[in-house]
Known about the structure:
By secondary structure, this protein is of the alpha/beta class. The chain is built from twelve helices and 20 strands.
Amino acid sequence: MSLARLRTLPSEAPEAPASATGAEIFALAEAIFPICRSITGEGVRETLRILGRHLPLERREVPTTTRIFDWEVPKEWAIREAFIEDMNGDRILDFRSCNLAVMNYSIPVDRVVHLEELKEHIHTLPDQPDLTPYRTSYYAPRWGFCMPHRELAALAPGMYHVRIDSELKDGSLTYGEYVHRGETDREFLLTTHICHPSLANDNCSGLALLALLARDLSHRRTRYTYRFLFVPGTIGALAWLAANEDRVGSIDHGLVISCVGDGGGPSYKRSRRHDAFIDRAMAHVLKTAHGEKARLLDFSPYGYDERQFCSPGFNLPVGLFQRSTFGTFPEYHTSADNLDFIRPEYLADSYRLLMGAIDIVERDWTPLNLFPKGEPQLGRRGLYDALGGMKAASEKAMAMLWVLNLADGNNSLLAIAERAGLPFNKVAITADLLREHGLLAEA
Length: 443
């Protein structure tokens, strides 16, 4: 198998477009931010249509009541209007102003109720009294509203008109899929959840970044095949796994992407395998770029869709990449997770980190030193300064010495970079140079 690097396809894209910028990723996140999404429904389809302007997404539909392992696809949710009015007809809350204001998947209701009963159906955050929480009830028939606690406390006793014009109907669960074919059938899976409504970091940031990364990768020739999924959380990942059980054995690497637009972290949660190649690659990329700021977390069965791909029946090498980890930042699942919370520079950094991991996956190989007895003479090959006896060798020289010393046929370039404490890219360039000069071969 050839060691193809990420490169432009000369016959199809002689001038590949520049890589996505933070501003471009932010603009796409901004475009999809207002859409009311859930695990099913038109919000998901509208989002996929917008993402599909940047890459040829295939839309998959899974009918309601379809059995998926121990789960069942729920009825499709549609919502048209929702409000709370006092008896003077003044709107206390309006879904049109904030789509977090209705508990996601609320059943329909149109009643006049007393404030005390209404309070039983209102979710607030007493510790963050000016924020609206995000709440759902996907699998239990309930109705409810979400609002700032300060506004709830200000409501006068009395009767209120509550209306949620929603519908639970036969339909389907929708997700998007794009496959970039590589030189082999071995796969790198990248997936992000599409079910959250107007939450910028969780997860408009992940949707926008992954769509543009897929677009950019589509212009390059790769060794691996890359599969991109835009799926509703939990049920969407399970739906894809159920439909592709015969394919999962081809997945060598995988990442779940979310919360990639804020200034925290960055962080990486390892796969259930703990020491999969992707775990090592992400750890190396994050540590090289961010040092002690990078957070490396062990696997746990609680989190995002990595827990589905890492369930014991699949045990795939899939980790979770985020900046601030879920549940740890005060804006999480609140109205404060808005477009002011994410920044183009953090989106751009997340993009570079992911491309760095892809670069390692694409360029890694195992070298063999063809002159293993002693140190080969680098000077006569023009590879080493002829200044013997210097106490501190240059970084370039040290990279050559590390590669030659560890190129015993048992260490890949990533292993050498880890052992030497050098950036992977520097080790890869050095190994290519030594191979060109006849000092290395592929083991």
